[in-house]
Amino acid sequence: MITAPTTTVADAVAALEAAYPPALAHDWDAVGLSVGDPAAPVRRVLIAVDPLPAVIDEALETGTDLLVTHHPLLLRGVHAVATTAPKGSAIHRLIRGGVALFTAHTNADAANPGVSDALADALGVTVERPLAPEDDGTVGIGRIGTLEQPETLDAFATRVAHALPATAWGVRAAGDPATMISRVALSGGAGDSMLHLARAAGVDVYVTADLRHHPATDHLAEPGAPALVDVAHWASEHPWCAQAAAVLARAAPDLDITVSTIRTDAWTVGAPSGALIP
Fold first, then answer.
1. In the prediction, which pLDDT does 77 show?
2. What is the pLDDT of residue 264?
3. Predicted local confidence at residue 136, as pLDDT
4. Spatial separation of the C-alpha atoms in residues 42 and 7, rounded to whole Å
5. CB neighbours of 64 closer than 8 A, spacing ≥ 6?
6. pLDDT band for position 5 (cuts 50, 70, 90)
7. DSSP single-letter state for residue 20
């Protein structure tokens, strides 16, 4: 005999918003329930970084009732949801399939624990405090912490590559490969706006995603600047999915929760560089 689900969309949303308070989201962000009926029952949950078509395919194929993502589907103004546009098509598919969509974005970045705590756990970094603290200093974007044992930048970059899901982008490091790494700053997602905070923190390395050429080179030109490790945006935030799954599992043990392993990183091909300049 199949028992009816006892958890509703509203129940799941309440648990997630308790862990990732909407008040922590930036004012430009779009978080919370964007598709679905709060009163609808939930049996299966899928958690992913991006609400892209392949993830929606997975949700529909697996009978998912609630899709939880880090990145919003509707971040910027939308004036139509016709199926002729990608976002309109996504909304129609979710509604037709009975799939609710919930997003925790910058509120999950700032929460304690949040996105960067999950990244720190994956890398074996013991967290001390936020990199960019807010309010009472217990929440904020990014984290600062330490490794159990110091290791070279070369070894640390390998650690990062092994800890995160594989991408075509891979892992890049900037600095002397022999530099010893003990104190680490990190931020899941695009983090070059906080390079100055990493320098001020006195860490040995800063791990983040989407580092651009000019901010990176300007940073490295500063005396005593920490080394850099640059990873793919999606890979840096994927560890959060397991954290969110644990939040829901504690609140509603009856749920069937799956973390998507579909790689939604924008970059799909990696090729070796050409000959080195003499």
1. 76
2. 97
3. 80
4. 6
5. 44, 45, 46, 58, 99, 258
6. low
7. S
Distance (Å, whole) CA 224 – CA 216? 14
Answer yes or no: is 21 within a domain: yes
Stronger pLDDT, 81 or 236, i.e. the higher one: 236
Note whether residue 278 is domain-resident. no
pTM over 0.90: yes
The overall average pLDDT reported for the chain is 95
Q: Does residue 22 form part of some domain?
A: yes
Instruction: Specify whether 143 is located in the same domain as 185.
Output: yes
Burial 44-80 (b: 16+ CB within 10 A, else e): bbbbbbbbbeebbebbbeeebbbbbbbbbbbeeeeee
242 and 227, same structural domain? no
CA-based nearest residue to 49, from 68, 30, 62 = 68
- CB contact burial 185-214 (16+ within 10 A = b; e otherwise): bbbbbebbebbebbbebebbbbbbbebeee
Give 32's strand partners: 103
Annotated binding-site residue? 219 = no
Q: Report whether 204 belongs to an annotated binding site.
A: no
Q: Is residue 52 located within the same domain as residue 123?
A: no
The answer to whether residues 80 and 137 belong to one domain is no
In sequence order, the 6+-apart residues with CB closer than 8 A to the CB of 254 are 5, 6, 7, 43
Q: Which domain does 95 fall in, by range?
A: 7-108+238-259
58 is an annotated ligand-binding site residue: no
- 71 annotated to bind ligand: yes
Inside any domain, residue 1: no
To 10 degrees, what angle do helices 115-123 and 239-251 make? 110
239 three-state secondary structure: helix
**For the segment 131-162, what is each residue's pLDDT rounded down to a tens digit?**
999 988 889 999 999 999 999 999 999 999 99
Instruction: Check residue 122 and give its pLDDT.
Output: 98
How large is the average pLDDT for residues 161-176?
96
233 assigned binding-site residue: yes
d(Cα 173, Cα 232) in Å, to the nearest integer?
A: 12
